[in-house]
Amino acid sequence: MMIIMHPGATQEQVDHVIEHIEEQHLSAHTIVGVEQTIIGAVGESHGVPTSIFETLPGVLAVQRISQPYKLASRQFHPENSIFPLDGFTIGSEEIPIIAGPCSVESRSQIIEVAQAVKEAGANALRGGVFKPRTSPYAFQGLGEEGLEYMAEARELTGLPIVVEVMAVSQVPLMVKYVDVLQIGARNMQNFNLLRAIGDTRTPVLLKRGMSAMVEDLLMATEYILAGGNERVMLCERGIRTFETATRNTTDINAIPVLQSLTHLPVVLDPSHSTGHADYVTAVAKAAVAAGADGIIVEVHQDPAHAMSDGRQSLTPESFASMVRKLKAVAEAVDRCLVSRVPSPF
Amino acid sequence: MMIIMKSSATPQDVERVIAKVKSVGLAVHLSQGVEATIIGAIGETHSLPTDQFEVMDGVEAVQRITQPYKLASRQFHPENSVFPIDGFSVGGEELALIAGPCAVESRSQIIETAHAVKEAGANALRGGVFKPRTSPYSFQGLGEEGLEYLAEAREQTGLPVVVEIMSQVQVALMVKCVDVLQVGARNMQNFNLLRVIGETQTPVLLKRGLSASIEELLMSAEYILAGGNKQVLLCERGIRTFETATRNTTDINAIPVLKSLTHLPVILDPSHSTGHFDYVAAIARAAVAAGADGLIVEVHPDPAHAMSDGRQSLKPEKFTAMVKQVSQIAEIMDRRLASVQAPVH
Known about the structure:
Structural class of chain A: alpha/beta
Helix content of chain A: 25-40%
Number of domains of chain A: 2
Strand content of chain B: 15-25%
Distance between the termini of chain A: 53 Å
Distance between the termini of chain B: 59 Å
Shape of chain A: elongated
CATH topology of the largest domain in chain B: TIM Barrel
Oligomer: heterodimer
Strand order of the largest sheet of chain A: 8-9-10-11-12-13-14-15
CATH architecture of the largest domain in chain A: Alpha-Beta Barrel
Low-confidence stretches of chain B: 341-345
Largest interface: A-B, 42 and 41 residues
Low-confidence stretches of chain A: none
CATH topology of the largest domain in chain A: TIM Barrel
CATH superfamily of the largest domain in chain A: Aldolase class I
Number of helices of chain A: 11
Helix content of chain B: 25-40%
Radius of gyration of chain B: 23 Å
CATH class of the largest domain in chain B: Alpha Beta
Structural class of chain B: alpha/beta
Order of helices and strands of chain B: EHEEHEEEEHEHEHEHEHEHEHHEH
Largest sheet of chain A: 8 strands, parallel, barrel
Number of strands of chain B: 14
Mean pLDDT of chain B: 93
Shape of chain B: elongated
Number of strands of chain A: 16
Strand order of the largest sheet of chain B: 7-8-9-10-11-12-13-14
């Protein structure tokens, strides 16, 4: 941690800061410049809040040198984290594709989509049953009934299921049904939910918040890892910017940046990050080319009549065509798609 | 153009709007809903300012249906624009691969870099001589002397040169010396400069402004096209967002969005869009996978001692490795890179 003093700071103020550094069991290293004095606080500082120093007289700014997260950091864990999910691994050479509708709408809808995406090459099925909709008047999901349909779709196809959890109260129910707990963008900093999920041993897909920095995403991850749940995959799903031509702005930089900062698998959601079916394939290809470890994409058999996200959902045919293109891109970056076809239970 | 009336609008308000629409030579299509009346103004509306209607009594909002640009639009010109730049065509099967230092620093530096990038597979050389630096105390470029060195580098390697123009007063000099005029992000809305460049017949590389929407970029392209210069390449170079892990945020969505809205070639600058050499190759691959028509990349023989942008510049060896990776992606996109030739002496 570096404590930068005001140009006019007195020696007394500098000494006072040094006292506080030593109180935190850190050692002080003072650099006296022409205009300003900088004090380095050396040691295990990731648990020390910067505000201890920021509030002292004569202090201009405090900068962390080491990352504020530890378990999520690649420094701490240099090898990629690879973990198995029913039939494939994530974080390895193979690139799984998670596909399915935004929401489970009915038994026949989810079973039909599950079979269609499986046939087209998907390795896991997505489908929301508790939906965080912007409007309280919009379709809110089928709840537990939807989970039963998802379980049936899994049984018929063998595809593991990825379902969003919205509240702490849903956790006990969800862990009984689902293979991967998805935390949506709007809940990325729902810290109670993160802690509750950290206490489970179900793999997690954590989506980046709409206005969350890469570091905020890694701090949210740290909450889950700190609880002992080590199977977290991170998901870039577009961030909020001034651009309105697309629903969000795909921060493609986040793929190589996250992979250099963390050992956890990184996937991309081109459906939300573009908001438009026309752009999904191009951005999915870009993600794989940039090194993403997986893709999560919305597919609906009849997007025009979908109860949510129809505009950004692919038809099963366009999804199949996307998968063929991703296979070629994966090979061009010395990766591959998952080759094993799941068998029904 | 759609004029949406307030629910409180009187029949007289509606009548006045209809009369105004007719007075500018447009046809009226009236739809009376339960809560609001909408007046469609049909005809050539792209040059009609919306505020003529927005200020009228009873008007809630005015929405354009057609795009405010015409010459740049794919509607107007469905085929891709392909144009030649000394030795290759931009917008066609061959990808533009423009590489070189941020700034021309010396005769030996630019000539050495030119040979290195050509050998690695570049088909054009970049190098700034008038530099728009954030700080007035930073290196501002070699000016005309730099242009002479670039001309010599072109003579030795056969690579066309891409050079940024900062001001109208430089146009006469620049068109004599350069193959492509680059308009930088900070000048994207320097409308006087755009007009002057529109009157030349030199190809233009127009960079997206740091906070410019895609529509604003296309409107700037329209300025140049309206002057009669049809050889405009658009360049995504990252936008300003809240994220600070990278210098800018690469808006990868902009590639497929621009390709659908305009017939002009679209290239990406992964050096500026990431700001860090570690991420350049991943984003270059992503751009080509997303359908970009080329790349512009900063390469410096000694990034640690570069006078500008060292942190985001690739060493020639790293650039060579990047080109190999990009060529694998290009192949599956049915695109190709320039055939690597021995340098001409």
